[in-house]
Amino acid sequence: QVQLVESGGGLVQPGGSLRLSCAASGFILDYYDIGWFRQAPGKEREGVSCRSSKDGSTYYADSVKGRFTISRDYAKNTVNLQMNSLKPEDTAIYYCAAGNGYYPWAMNEADFGSWGQGTQVTVSS
Length: 125
Fold this sequence. Notes:
mainly beta; single chain; about 0% helix; seven-stranded mixed beta sheet; about 120 residues
């Protein structure tokens, strides 16, 4: 059974940092593109970052470039999202997802067939 589990969310002040982790069971992470998505209240879900299975290339939404970093932790068998300089507009439920699309940089939800349950990130003073 394919399963993704996110962890690491929480409440942080503006300018702070959080590290989200995505753990997989039932499949090998490196065989799939792993994406991080988020959904803020009243908004559509959007792609935040993606790590390509083909060559490990990483992609970011313009809104998080320079602040977020996606990485593979082989020791813990996770894909992590390091989030720095957090802003109130980063508040959302964050999901990790696995899939295989032709264009991972597009972070098209339809290309990701397996999803985690999400973890809440709240940026507030």
